[in-house]
Write a structure and sequence with these properties.
Order of helices and strands: HEEHE
Oligomer: single chain
Number of strands: 3
Largest sheet: 3 strands, antiparallel
């Protein structure tokens, strides 16, 4: 996955009124983690990713953090 693909998913979620699940690596973690970005926060979070991650979705200040996958979802708890 790269930033362009991630951006397309964010736009799809925004248009459909849905949320995004982001799977990423974490330093020292034995498994990946999943972050849910709720629909009202999509623009802010995408801007954050654009400003802080490379085109290949590696965090610029910690290369052990990388976005691996993302999926449009309808989050309910």
């Amino acid at each position: 996955m790269n930033f362009k693909e991630l951006s397309k998913l964010f736009m799809k979620a925004k248009l459909e009124g849905k949320d995004i699940a982001i799977e990423l690596t974490v330093p020292g973690g034995r498994a990946t983690e999943v972050i849910i970005v709720k629909n009202p926060n999509l623009d802010t979070k995408l801007t954050y990713y654009k400003n802080n991650y490379t085109e290949d979705l590696v965090l610029t200040r910690c290369d052990k953090i990388k976005i691996l996958n993302a999926k449009v979802i309808k989050f309910e708890m």
